[in-house]
Design goal:
Chain B: This is NADH-quinone oxidoreductase subunit B. Chain B: Keywords: 4Fe-4S, Iron, Iron-sulfur, Metal-binding, NAD. The complex is a heterodimer of chains A (394) and B (156). Chain A has 15 helices and nine strands. Chain A has 394 residues and is α+β, with helices and mostly antiparallel strands. In chain A, a hairpin with a 2-residue loop joins strand 7 and strand 8. Chain A is globular. Chain B is of the alpha/beta class and 156 residues long. The radius of gyration of chain B is 16 Å and the shape is globular. Classes of the chains: A alpha+beta (394), B alpha/beta (156).
Chain lengths: 394, 156
């Protein structure tokens, strides 16, 4: 890592190993004194080739790989994939399975938002809040572990249903945990909106207007904090979101504080939803049979991940191995908004602004675009691409 | 033959090293699962700081490299560079199944396969992801290994 002066500009390179974020990503900030005048991001350090790898595994094996696209939102990836495959196979999971999918998705949202709250506070130098929120997050980790036996990759989904049932004892445990967390969230809401130091670092920082959010294609809480009413759970209800609807939460401020407020309000909404599902859990089977060979066709499934819209495109050629799996993740959609609103702020605000979109690098690194100035050829034949790949990795 | 002076100095060095190993964490392409569990070990419930273990930002201040992920081709050189920047003696803990064998990503075109192929590894912590307790146990194994020249794990 070295700073350099070229054409009178001072560039501060950060990463890929850096103390702020736990994942590798490379940033370059052009600064004029303390003020950032330009920002760029380089991704791809976590590119593992999952989409290509999915073409070498069968439909059932892929379930476990797509779960490992991201460790924070593994359940939504599996849900999106399972919904797509079920759509192709022409089956629907039973209502009880759908409700359990929604329940785990909401618990995952709670875990993800609390994790983010801590990390974002840590970026702002507020380590007390980091420790508090991570201590309380262990409650929801315990609940998830009680449901499925694992803390991070829940593996709740199957093609055509879910693996784990919720009995009365577990439901009581879930209710108790949720009650405790709701009480703690009131404290966080108070800190985020009234703590003077915290408000000083977040209010009117990184403002993004509604128009900009539309233009830059922001998704999830980042967009909702700018007043964009975009939520897949409401726009295109999947699993049992029609039966247990969620209330849309938006904020018009569009600054960093609004992103905190929106996420904490979403936590309340998740708690309400979890209780409602537990009280009105539909009876019935947990799985339906899904054929091993999936009929030929194409399917698109969308779900709302904790970070925004997640899209899966699946193509089957009638065998037990998918023809194509395309994943579009929310973090990648939000990068352009960070690069945009970072300009004009102090360098010291950067970690918090970056954390503001809840970046998830392992979700990001789905694709690599090669763009090397000069004679850029946009259309490559398969043979050219193959030769390029061989030369690149030699 | 070691003089009394070097012998004592080495004893003091080992003592100091065992009492406060500073660690650095690098994600070489894992899914985040291991990383959030490593972070969880620092937070109040698990709290590794009570063993004197501290997560450090710079490789130049670290004794232990806690590495996760199947080492993507993009991250390989960075991992090597971080390892080379660490002062001697240095130790590596590989966390997670994919760092051990490629795990769920085995056969993907952009991964090296495991951390051992890039840098020497002292302790392996299996699991996808390993629980925070397992990560702490892995670190404790490393410390035991430093203390005694004999095998760290007792049979039975």
């Amino acid at each position: 890592m070295e700073a350099q002066t070229t054409t009178g500009k001072f560039v501060v390179p950060i990463g890929p190993q850096h103390p702020a974020l736990k994942e590798p990503g490379h940033f370059e900030f052009t600064v004029d004194g303390e003020i950032v005048t330009g920002a760029s991001v380089r991704l791809g350090f976590v590119h593992r080739g999952i989409e290509k790898g999915a073409e070498a595994r069968n439909w059932v094996q892929n379930m476990y790989m797509v779960e490992r696209v991201c460790g924070i939102c593994s359940h939504v990836h599996a849900t999106a994939y399972a919904l797509g495959v079920e759509q192709l196979a022409g089956v629907t999971a039973p209502p009880r399975a759908q409700a359990i999918r929604e329940l785990v998705a909401e618990l995952e949202r709670v875990h993800s938002h609390m994790l983010w709250l801590g990390v974002a506070a840590h970026e702002g130098g507020f380590d007390t809040l980091f420790m508090y929120s991570w201590r309380d997050r262990e409650t929801v980790m315990d609940l998830l572990e009680a449901i499925c036996g694992n803390r991070v990759h829940y593996s709740v989904n199957l093609l055509g249903g879910v693996k784990y049932d919720i009995d009365d004892k577990l439901a009581d445990q879930l209710r108790k945990g949720v009650d405790f967390l709701e009480g703690r969230c009131e404290h966080y809401m108070k800190v985020v909106t009234t703590d003077e130091t915290f408000v000083g670092r977040t209010k009117n920082v990184g403002k993004m207007s509604k128009e900009e959010a539309y233009e830059l294609g922001s998704v999830g809480p980042t967009a909702r904090a700018s007043g964009v009413d975009r939520d897949i759970r409401i726009d295109a209800p999947y699993v049992s979101y029609e039966q247990f609807p969620v209330k849309l939460i938006t904020d018009d401020a569009g600054d960093l504080q609004a992103r905190f407020v929106v996420r904490i309000k979403e936590l309340y909404e998740s708690f309400r939803l979890i209780r409602e599902i537990l009280d009105h859990m539909p009876e019935g089977e947990l799985t339906v049979k899904v054929p091993r060979r999936i009929p030929a066709g194409e399917a698109i499934s969308r779900v709302e991940a904790p970070r925004g819209e997640l899209l899966y495109f699946l193509k089957s050629n009638g065998t037990d191995i998918p023809d194509r799996v395309k994943i579009r993740t929310p973090s990648l959609c939000n990068w352009s908004s960070v690069v945009n609103y970072a300009v004009g702020h102090k360098l010291a605000d950067m970690p918090m602004l970056l954390a503001g979109i809840d970046p998830c690098f392992s979700c990001n690194d789905r694709s690599v675009t090669i763009h090397r100035g000069g004679n850029v050829q946009n259309d490559w034949s398969w043979e050219q691409l193959r030769q390029y790949g061989i030369a690149y990795y030699r | 033959m070691d003089s009394v002076w070097t012998k004592t100095l080495n004893q003091v060095k080992t003592w100091a090293r065992i009492n406060s190993p500073w660690a650095i964490h690098f994600n070489s392409g894992s899914c985040n699962g291991c990383d959030i569990e490593i972070l969880a070990t620092l937070t109040p419930r698990y709290d590794v700081e009570r063993f004197g273990i501290k997560l450090q930002g710079s490789p130049r201040h670290a004794d232990v490299l806690i590495c996760t992920g199947p080492v993507t081709r993009q991250a390989k050189n960075r991992l090597l560079r971080i390892y080379e920047q660490m002062p001697d003696p240095k130790f590596v803990i590989a966390v997670g199944s994919c760092g051990l064998s490629g795990g769920a990503f085995q056969g993907c075109y952009n991964i090296t396969g495991n951390i051992n192929e890039v840098i020497p590894v002292d302790v392996y912590v299996p699991g996808c992801p390993p629980r925070p307790e397992a990560i702490i146990y892995g670190v404790a194994q490393l410390l035991a290994k430093l203390q005694a020249p004999a095998p760290a794990v007792k049979e039975g």
